[in-house]
Amino acid sequence: MNKKLFTLVILAILAIVSIGGVYALDSSDDSSQSSSIGKVTIDGIDFNIPDGFEEFITNSSKQYNRTVDGVPYFSTIKNYDNDNDSISIAVSKNPTHKATQDTAKGVGGDLETINGIEGYLDYHPQNITKFKSGNVTFTITIPPYYSFAYSKDDKLIVIVTTDEDYLSEVLIDDSSFFGLKF
Q1: Is the pLDDT of residue 110 over 90?
Q2: Would the N or C end of the chain have less CB density within 10 A of its end CB?
Q3: Residue 44 CA to its chain's centroid (Å)
Q4: Which sign, positive or negative, has the C-alpha torsion 155, 58, 144, 73?
């Protein structure tokens, strides 16, 4: 994968993780919650949000438009949570580069099939970062999470969740009819 594309993929993952971190800081605000969701469509791709999860309105459906080395990159990111877990979904596209499974491979992980969808599953252990500003030291803790990346309709889809089991609930394989692949 070329260096520009890899940089774009990393930016998408960082955006998802940083949004989760911002949410963790503000999770006490119940006014930003809505009811259970079910099926959602993000940029033409269908997903299922498990029962008990609610959309985090403040950060949901954000458009991230960036240019990296002159290459435009567009992502739509939605975030959902319940009392203990979170799910973030990013659908990304580039008008001059069609995402492929090689693009998804660049996100990292091992090739896996979940609900008939082939992609790259990766586990990210807890990360603790400390930084100092003046005389104050800050500590940021990013909890462990799983990511699953795949391509569909020339788009890169990255799902990040705190529990691997949610991936099979979120992913919808719409390429089959009564269990038969076309």
Answers
A1: yes
A2: C
A3: 15
A4: positive
Residues 6+ apart with CB under 8 A from 179: none
E strand or H helix at 76: strand 71-81
Contact 129, 104 (CB under 8 A): no
Structure tokens at 5: 């594309």
**Given CA atoms 92, 97, 103, 104 in this order, what sign does their dihedral have?**
positive
What is the overall mean pLDDT for the chain? 77
Q: How much is the average pLDDT of 124-132?
A: 86
| Closest-CA residue to 118 (of 97, 95, 100) | 100
Specify whether the CB–CB gap between 170 and 49 falls below 8 A.
Answer: yes
Report residue 2 as tokens: 């070329």
Of the listed ranges 5-14, 50-59, 166-175, the least confidently predicted one is 5-14
* pLDDT at 175 > cutoff 80: no
Which has more confidence, 160 or 21? 160
What is the rounded CA–CA span in Å between residue 92 and residue 114?
Answer: 20
pTM of the model: 0.71
